[in-house]
Structure formats: structure tokens, C-alpha cells
Amino acid sequence: MFACGPWLGKLFPEVVGNRIRATKQDVFFFGTPAGDDRFTESKLPVWADHRDRFIYGIPGKMKGEASKSPMIPAGLEYDPTSGKE
């Protein structure tokens, strides 16, 4: 197992090639006020919206932890080494 993240294709070009490529996308983290547990995993499930574009959300595990909500599809190709699109 290799945990190379976005560099996998560059490290193993003959095996992976362009099958996996790094892209840039917006990810939003929503925090809640102190003591607010309405958006923790015990009260809010993981959700997905498949309409116009694929959006999903993952609740925070504990009070005060942010919920994650990225938007799919991914954006432009991104070079993780240079940080440029």
C-alpha cells in the first residue's frame, strides 16, 4: 500500500498514468456555536444530493467539530508540487 495522495500518478506513471490525477475543488467546513450538538454524527447522518451537481456532507464527530461539505465534480487539474492549476 502506498499513501502518496495526489502524487500517486507521478510516482508510478507506468502503472497508474493518468488514471488518477489531482484536481482542485472547493470544500466548505461549517462550524457550530459552542455547545450546539445538532450537527454531530449522532443527530445528523452523512447526506448526498445527486441533483444538478453532486454535493455531500459529513457531520462533525463531536461538539464544536466542523461539518464537511465538498462540491463535486472536481475542478481543474492541479499540480500538488507547484500548487498551480
Describe this structure in words.
- The protein is mainly β and 85 residues long.
- It has one helix and four strands; from the N terminus they run αββββ.
- The strands form two sheets. It has a two-stranded antiparallel ribbon. Strands 2-3 form a two-stranded antiparallel sheet.
- The radius of gyration is 17 Å and the shape is elongated.
- The two termini are 28 Å apart.
- The mean pLDDT is 79.
Descriptors for this entry?
elongated, mainly beta, 85 residues, single chain, 4 strands, two-stranded antiparallel sheet, two-stranded antiparallel ribbon, 5% helix, 1 helix
Compact overview of the structure:
With about 80 residues, this protein is mainly β.
Helix content: under 10%
> What class would the helix/strand composition place it in?
mainly beta
Strand content: 15-25%
Number of helices: 1
The radius of gyration computed from the alpha-carbon positions, rounded to a whole number of angstroms, is: 17 Å
Mean pLDDT over the full residue set: 79
Shape: elongated
Q: pLDDT below 50 for ≥5 consecutive residues: which ranges?
A: none
Count of extended strands: 4
| Strand arrangement across the biggest beta sheet | 1-4
Distance between the termini: 28 Å
- Series of secondary-structure elements, N-terminal to C-terminal: HEEEE
